[in-house]
């Protein structure tokens, strides 16, 4: 059974679904951001396990290491970029969250939408 | 043996993700999320990606957690019902 | 109701993803299709071509240097956006909630942080400079520097941390990653190659390995400094509080 052998992939799918559930259902924005981070790490995890080789060694050629046994270096290089971009996205989103709280005094998405609707109504009158 | 260790680590990952998502207290959620990042770094080390494990341990468990903490202290600690 | 619909949707998506994953090749197969074409070449030739035994450093700085320069731009843009949203301090020292806390940090924690911070910075310097031989490199080292300053800031407060790392020290270094990347790229053109060519064709063959090595180290240092300063500035901008009063303690 190939899927059972690829249990890393199953873990990545479950983590992705947990993250997506948080982003959709939870109403608190910081919770949503935690969910977004879980989704990101799930995708990174999937990529890294794609590049793994049985009994592989890290792709560092020191001490006459055999290149044919090394794990795939491309996913690792790409995900290194991805992690740094993920932390920049998180920082930007959190500063927006701080600004939202300063403006509306709540982090609940439903409250935020209601406040916005009321403001639009007041502006219309 | 190695397979059992991998499975245990992935189960721990999923458990910590669920706990982080379910926690009512945002502070607890963020701390559990940093544990999640740390386990992820260990899993990546087991997948022979030492560069990434180093980055995840520093960025995921360190920088991201502190950024979340700062945002929580500047806003609201409890999740509203 | 909304919860049930989203649960249904997500479980459907999960089943779909599991089907896709089930038809993927066996994980850990040395013959799998992800290991064709360019991968064996990278693994075989990276050491001679990029002069870095760590293949990942060779890929992110040399083979795919454009990619990394774009990434450096992304983190700089993130910093610019954070500063545009939250604002930057005018001048001088700044403070935050940590400084106004009525409960001072425990002396044990303070002593430990004061003891550990230099060692963490030393480790990060090792990580940056040894990036092409051992696991590590610019981003990793930069993140570790950032983490050490973050520990310091959360314990000793922003008032103290902004005295150690003043604004006039941070501002010129924030852009250093992209500037150094750009300079090295232009030097590649001057040396007779394309943008971001490390092995200049215009110089003698026996000089090329050392030039490649030094350019790699310079780029690593630039990325490390730039990344660390960007992370520190983002943290300071998020922690800073507006009132222009000094903390009591």
Automatic annotation (TrEMBL), chain A:
<protein>
    <submittedName>
        <fullName>Cation:proton antiporter</fullName>
    </submittedName>
</protein>
<keyword id="KW-1133">Transmembrane helix</keyword>
<feature type="transmembrane region" description="Helical">
    <location>
        <begin position="33"/>
        <end position="53"/>
    </location>
</feature>
<dbReference type="Pfam" id="PF00420">
    <property type="entry name" value="Oxidored_q2"/>
</dbReference>
<keyword id="KW-0472">Membrane</keyword>
<keyword id="KW-1003">Cell membrane</keyword>
<dbReference type="InterPro" id="IPR039428">
    <property type="entry name" value="NUOK/Mnh_C1-like"/>
</dbReference>
<feature type="transmembrane region" description="Helical">
    <location>
        <begin position="6"/>
        <end position="24"/>
    </location>
</feature>
<feature type="transmembrane region" description="Helical">
    <location>
        <begin position="73"/>
        <end position="101"/>
    </location>
</feature>
<dbReference type="GO" id="GO:0005886">
    <property type="term" value="C:plasma membrane"/>
</dbReference>
<dbReference type="InterPro" id="IPR050601">
    <property type="entry name" value="CPA3_antiporter_subunitC"/>
</dbReference>
<keyword id="KW-0812">Transmembrane</keyword>
<comment type="similarity">
    <text>Belongs to the CPA3 antiporters (TC 2.A.63) subunit C family.</text>
</comment>
TrEMBL record, chain B:
<feature type="transmembrane region" description="Helical">
    <location>
        <begin position="53"/>
        <end position="73"/>
    </location>
</feature>
<dbReference type="Pfam" id="PF13244">
    <property type="entry name" value="MbhD"/>
</dbReference>
<dbReference type="InterPro" id="IPR025383">
    <property type="entry name" value="MrpA_C/MbhD"/>
</dbReference>
<dbReference type="InterPro" id="IPR042106">
    <property type="entry name" value="Nuo/plastoQ_OxRdtase_6_NuoJ"/>
</dbReference>
<feature type="transmembrane region" description="Helical">
    <location>
        <begin position="6"/>
        <end position="21"/>
    </location>
</feature>
<keyword id="KW-1133">Transmembrane helix</keyword>
<keyword id="KW-0472">Membrane</keyword>
<keyword id="KW-1003">Cell membrane</keyword>
<protein>
    <submittedName>
        <fullName>Cation:proton antiporter</fullName>
    </submittedName>
</protein>
<keyword id="KW-0812">Transmembrane</keyword>
<feature type="transmembrane region" description="Helical">
    <location>
        <begin position="26"/>
        <end position="47"/>
    </location>
</feature>
<feature type="domain" description="MrpA C-terminal/MbhD">
    <location>
        <begin position="11"/>
        <end position="77"/>
    </location>
</feature>
<dbReference type="GO" id="GO:0005886">
    <property type="term" value="C:plasma membrane"/>
</dbReference>
TrEMBL record, chain C:
<feature type="transmembrane region" description="Helical">
    <location>
        <begin position="171"/>
        <end position="191"/>
    </location>
</feature>
<dbReference type="Pfam" id="PF04039">
    <property type="entry name" value="MnhB"/>
</dbReference>
<feature type="transmembrane region" description="Helical">
    <location>
        <begin position="141"/>
        <end position="159"/>
    </location>
</feature>
<feature type="transmembrane region" description="Helical">
    <location>
        <begin position="108"/>
        <end position="129"/>
    </location>
</feature>
<comment type="similarity">
    <text>Belongs to the CPA3 antiporters (TC 2.A.63) subunit B family.</text>
</comment>
<keyword id="KW-1003">Cell membrane</keyword>
<feature type="domain" description="MrpA C-terminal/MbhE">
    <location>
        <begin position="33"/>
        <end position="88"/>
    </location>
</feature>
<keyword id="KW-1133">Transmembrane helix</keyword>
<dbReference type="InterPro" id="IPR046806">
    <property type="entry name" value="MrpA_C/MbhE"/>
</dbReference>
<dbReference type="Pfam" id="PF20501">
    <property type="entry name" value="MbhE"/>
</dbReference>
<keyword id="KW-0812">Transmembrane</keyword>
<feature type="transmembrane region" description="Helical">
    <location>
        <begin position="70"/>
        <end position="87"/>
    </location>
</feature>
<dbReference type="InterPro" id="IPR050622">
    <property type="entry name" value="CPA3_antiporter_subunitB"/>
</dbReference>
<feature type="domain" description="Na+/H+ antiporter MnhB subunit-related protein">
    <location>
        <begin position="108"/>
        <end position="225"/>
    </location>
</feature>
<keyword id="KW-0472">Membrane</keyword>
């Amino acid at each position: 059974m190939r899927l059972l052998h690829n249990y890393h992939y199953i873990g990545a799918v479950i983590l992705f679904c947990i993250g997506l559930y948080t982003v959709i259902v939870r109403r608190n924005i910081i919770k949503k951001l935690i969910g977004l981070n879980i989704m990101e790490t799930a995708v990174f995890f999937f990529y890294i396990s794609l590049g793994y080789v049985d009994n592989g060694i890290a792709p560092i050629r020191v001490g006459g290491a055999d290149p044919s046994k090394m794990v795939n270096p491309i996913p690792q290089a790409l995900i290194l970029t991805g992690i740094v971009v993920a932390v920049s996205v998180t920082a930007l989103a959190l500063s927006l969250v701080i600004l939202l709280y300063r403006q509306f005094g709540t982090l609940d998405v439903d409250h935020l939408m209601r406040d916005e609707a009321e403001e639009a109504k007041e502006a219309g009158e | 043996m190695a397979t059992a260790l991998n499975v245990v680590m992935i189960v721990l990952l999923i458990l910590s993700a669920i706990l982080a998502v379910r926690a009512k207290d945002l502070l607890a959620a963020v701390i559990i999320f940093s544990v999640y990042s740390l386990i992820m770094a260990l899993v990546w080390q087991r997948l022979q990606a030492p560069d990434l494990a180093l980055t995840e341990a520093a960025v995921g468990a360190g920088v991201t957690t502190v950024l979340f903490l700062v945002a929580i202290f500047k806003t609201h600690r409890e999740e509203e019902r | 109701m909304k919860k049930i619909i989203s649960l249904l949707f997500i479980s459907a998506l999960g089943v779909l993803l599991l089907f896709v994953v089930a038809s993927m090749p066996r994980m850990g197969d040395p013959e799998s299709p992800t290991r064709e074409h360019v991968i064996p070449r990278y693994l075989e030739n990276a050491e001679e071509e990029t002069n870095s035994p760590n293949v990942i450093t060779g890929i992110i700085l040399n083979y795919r240097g454009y990619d990394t320069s774009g990434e450096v731009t992304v983190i700089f843009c993130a910093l610019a956006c954070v500063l545009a949203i939250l604002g930057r301090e005018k001048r001088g020292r700044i403070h935050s909630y940590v400084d106004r806390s009525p409960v001072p940090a425990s002396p044990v924690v303070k002593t430990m942080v004061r003891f550990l911070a230099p060692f963490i910075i030393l480790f990060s310097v090792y990580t940056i400079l040894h990036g092409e031989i051992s696991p590590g490199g610019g981003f990793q080292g930069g993140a570790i520097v950032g983490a050490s300053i973050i520990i310091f800031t959360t314990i000793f407060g922003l008032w103290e941390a902004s005295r150690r790392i003043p604004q006039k020290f941070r501002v010129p270094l924030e852009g250093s990653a992209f500037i150094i990347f750009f300079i090295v790229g232009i030097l590649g053109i001057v040396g007779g190659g394309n943008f971001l060519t490390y092995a200049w064709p215009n110089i003698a063959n026996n000089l090329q390995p050392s030039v490649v090595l030094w350019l790699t180290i310079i780029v690593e240092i630039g990325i490390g400094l730039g990344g660390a300063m960007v992370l520190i500035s983002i943290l300071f901008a998020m922690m800073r509080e507006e009132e222009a009063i000094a903390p009591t303690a």
